[in-house]
């Protein structure tokens, strides 16, 4: 295991101890089977306890885990014949977002998602999954095409947020995000959005207006990063942990706030522990969602989409 | 400043007394924020808070804006009593909102309603940056969405003046979702043939600029208004580069193709009147 998160350390320590005892047993006359069994039982309990009681800040760490599967990892497991297409036709190709078509169980679909890099080099190319306006415009171009050819749209959300850069502002970052929100509202094909890692602010929302919104158990969705919130609210980015709790950004929080439809469970210890298993969990939810949504007429779809967003928010 | 500036505005709307009380602060004189020249308050009120010397557009309160545009006695407010709750149980949020309610005389950072602009009926929303910096929470999203739906039902145009620092932090993701909610409402309105005019005033940033403010059939701005998504400081930190003085001003946005026009406050009513008339005529020909 390359990356160990702070809260996982007791688990790792215990695992090492068990390995040590096993090694000792195999190399000496002493039979420690009983002790090993006890420790393994404790490990089981400890894992259940730690992973079953993750605090918001722990989940932020999970969502940001360097080995956390990306959009492309899930595309490979869930879809077949994925063909990626590039460019927004106005300015360029933003590799922070990928888009293309594929089969989902024999049904052609359009797949769009933020794409982080696996290493520094790829991250630079993909701008750490933080889009410029051309990324949103590429996404919208593919969504319109999906509508034309009657393909459901599946969006994977995984970004720290829109890129705060000069060029992004000069090319109409605000307009590009706003345009997507508005146009996604009117697409006459089913749209399923799944937050797989970090869902940060307008950059996430620009792929996030749809009929069903799901979140992986350890993903987050927020108006601003915990660090950004802490800096704004308490003038201290160091209070990110406090912000993660106060801002209510976990899948469980969003379910409670009636913003998302379903929490997709994660493999124990996080999605990165078992990509295939994780892809299966996501696959099941996509399948259910598509079945449900394909029953609606275009008019019903749009009316329900409005009803869905209409009720979000609390006031007196 | 042009002499004809208020010639076409025949009548003023009367402001309810509880609003005028807070809109007219103590003191006889006021200093221009830009050129620092001192003026009588009455003088600035006449020019709608535009500096007679340098033309700087000082913020205009929601009710002052309404007074400056609508025919006297025609503006009827919607959802006046809607108030903010504390959906995340955010510490200190209730107190902050209460304080701004007292300070501004408003229930939230927005007023919505309908009335006549030189005889032309329109639905209307105006944000007020003196209330929690015009940040957008559930109430603002809901009132805008309802105003747009009302406009759609009544086949009225929809005019919105934005002024917002962005998302309301204390409402977290619910604030973010108001961007989606208002945008879905605008899509429905637009598809029904509705005319939407957005006027961005200082400041229009963050989630507000990245949703309804940018979604008008016409997008205007007041001179010098700050308009943009990300904040200047965060951009400078990210790209390690000093940004030009005019970065994210209305003039910058016009140059980069993001605005239809920059409209000085003195010309606003005339322009809106002409646009409303043209669209009404076009519609009746259809
Ligand atoms: Zn001045």
UniProtKB/TrEMBL annotation, chain A:
Keywords: ATP-binding, Cytoplasm, Fatty acid biosynthesis, Fatty acid metabolism, Ligase, Lipid biosynthesis, Lipid metabolism, Nucleotide-binding, Transferase. Its EC number is 2.1.3.15. GO terms for biological process: fatty acid biosynthetic process; malonyl-CoA biosynthetic process. Signal peptide: none annotated. Residues 38-292 form the CoA carboxyltransferase C-terminal domain. Belongs to the AccA family. Acetyl-CoA carboxylase is a heterohexamer composed of biotin carboxyl carrier protein (AccB), biotin carboxylase (AccC) and two subunits each of ACCase subunit alpha (AccA) and ACCase subunit beta (AccD). Component of the acetyl coenzyme A carboxylase (ACC) complex. First, biotin carboxylase catalyzes the carboxylation of biotin on its carrier protein (BCCP) and then the CO(2) group is transferred by the carboxyltransferase to acetyl-CoA to form malonyl-CoA. This is Acetyl-coenzyme A carboxylase carboxyl transferase subunit alpha.
From TrEMBL, chain B:
A zinc finger (C4-type) spans 32-54. GO terms for biological process: fatty acid biosynthetic process; malonyl-CoA biosynthetic process. Zn(2+) binds at residues 32, 35, 51, 54. Binds 1 zinc ion per subunit. It is an enzyme of class 2 (transferase). It catalyses: N(6)-carboxybiotinyl-L-lysyl-[protein] + acetyl-CoA = N(6)-biotinyl-L-lysyl-[protein] + malonyl-CoA. Keywords: ATP-binding, Cytoplasm, Fatty acid biosynthesis, Fatty acid metabolism, Lipid biosynthesis, Lipid metabolism, Metal-binding, Nucleotide-binding, Transferase, Zinc, Zinc-finger. It is found in: Cytoplasm. GO terms for molecular function: acetyl-CoA carboxylase activity; ATP binding; carboxyl- or carbamoyltransferase activity; zinc ion binding. SUPFAM superfamilies: ClpP/crotonase. Pathway: Lipid metabolism; malonyl-CoA biosynthesis; malonyl-CoA from acetyl-CoA: step 1/1. Its EC number is 2.1.3.15. Residues 28-286 form the CoA carboxyltransferase N-terminal domain. Signal peptide: none annotated. Gene3D superfamilies: 2-enoyl-CoA Hydratase, Chain A, domain 1. Belongs to the AccD/PCCB family. PANTHER family: ACETYL-COENZYME A CARBOXYLASE CARBOXYL TRANSFERASE SUBUNIT BETA, CHLOROPLASTIC (PTHR42995:SF5). Component of the acetyl coenzyme A carboxylase (ACC) complex. Biotin carboxylase (BC) catalyzes the carboxylation of biotin on its carrier protein (BCCP) and then the CO(2) group is transferred by the transcarboxylase to acetyl-CoA to form malonyl-CoA. This is Acetyl-coenzyme A carboxylase carboxyl transferase subunit beta.
